[in-house]
Specification:
Elements (H helix, E strand, L loop, with lengths): L4 E9 L2 E6 L5 E6 L1 H6 L10 E6 L7 E6 L5 E2 L4 E2 L1 E9 L7 H13 L3 E7 L5 H13 L3 E4 L8 H8 L3 E5 L6 H16 L17 E5 L2 E5 L8 H4 L11 H6 L17 H4 L7 H18 L10
Parallel strand pairs: 3-5, 8-9, 8-11, 9-10, 11-13
Antiparallel strand pairs: 1-2, 1-4, 2-3, 4-5, 6-7, 12-13
The protein binds guanosine-5'-triphosphate, magnesium ion and zinc ion.
């Protein structure tokens, strides 16, 4: 594959993929050869994929994907490969924040080795709720920002946090992901004195994932989504705590090494409810744990402490 060019998929619509060449920075359109999926071990080309591509001789579609490099990770929602950071975006209201979805995304970020950055948008609509949510999630150790019509996160601060990799937006529809993505790209372009490659979609529902150059890396606008099933994704009940750093750090104080923090005696996590542990976050932890545990249908070999 030495003679092929290398790049990253920035967009894929109707079987045609836009690839940004790593050396020239040029964008080219690529078709897919039937065999690429086989050679790529059944991988479907996905935005964020590192690829090799070569010429076709056909002026309509001048290039073709030859190979997909092994991935660091892959997300189904939003559909993105090789994600380094995720901007978990939730409105403080309109639509009301789906904190179950946020907590699920935090579990997935830990499992997939993705740095989560939480952004609460529409803070102008309910400033108190914004501050409350920021307080809860910052106390767990997460990096949080609030964003409103006239006060958005600084693009330079975000760039310092995100670095070279792919940064994806994730969150429900209508929370303001595209609005913020536009703002951040414009803000960056202004600061470096360039014309921005602004998303030209205004206030429309986003239909496709697309990567934009951001600092040394890429930022993706993505369509919103509402449902996410931890069981379908393959999350195990004993992985739920990965999305709850406050629970993990307290668990050293529990009487039992394998405390599940459900109904065990002398559980440091449950003793900290309302002080170190937010009761609503804990309720979601318990719900996810119990749901995955019963779906796994494996009650054997587990100690009961009651
Ligand atoms: N009040 C207020 N409204 C906002 C803010 N940010 C975005 N909006 C509005 O929210 C609506 C949805 O914004 P979008 O940016 O299209 O939302 P999205 O998350 O990209 O939605 P999808 O593409 O469907 O996933 C628009 O009418 C925006 O003007 C904000 O900070 N405050
Ligand atoms: Mg959008
Ligand atoms: Zn415990």
């Amino acid at each position: 594959m030495e003679h092929y060019k290398k790049g990253i998929i920035t967009k894929g619509v109707g079987g045609i993929y836009t690839v940004r060449d790593h050396l020239s920075g040029e964008y080219v359109s690529c078709a897919v050869r039937g065999g690429v999926k086989r050679r790529g071990h059944g991988m479907n080309p996905t935005v964020g994929d590192e690829v090799c591509y070569g010429p076709t001789g056909d002026p309509d579609i001048p290039f073709i994907l030859e190979k997909i490099e092994p991935r660091h990770n892959l997300l189904i929602r939003p559909p993105l490969a090789n994600v380094s950071n995720m901007l978990l975006t939730f409105a403080v209201c309109d639509p009301i924040p789906d904190l179950k979805l946020l907590d699920k995304m935090l579990i997935i970020c830990r499992l997939k080795d993705i740095k989560p950055i939480i952004i609460f948008t529409k803070a102008d609509l309910d400033p108190k709720q914004a501050d409350k949510l920021i307080e809860i999630y910052s106390a767990c150790g997460y990096t949080c920002f609030k964003s409103s019509h006239d006060n958005k996160p600084d693009s330079r601060k975000l760039m310092a946090l995100t670095g070279k990799g792919v940064t994806g937006f994730a969150g429900p529809s209508g929370v303001g992901k595209s609005t913020l993505c536009n703002y951040i790209l414009d803000d960056e372009a202004m600061q470096v004195g360039e014309v921005s490659e602004r998303l030209k979609r205004g206030k429309h529902t986003t239909r496709h994932v697309e990567l934009f150059e951001f600092g040394e890396g890429f930022m993706s606008d993505t369509p919103g989504f509402t449902s996410l099933d931890l069981f379908d994704i393959g999350v195990e009940y004993d992985q739920v705590a990965l999305g709850y750093p406050e629970i993990q750090s307290l668990s050293h104080g529990c009487k039992y090494d394998d405390c599940r923090h459900i109904n065990e005696k002398d559980c440091a996590v449950r003793e900290a409810l309302g002080s170190g542990v937010d009761p609503d976050r804990y309720a979601r932890y318990k719900e996810f744990y119990e749901e995955l545990y019963s779906k796994r249908n494996d009650y054997s070999g587990r100690k009961k402490y009651e």
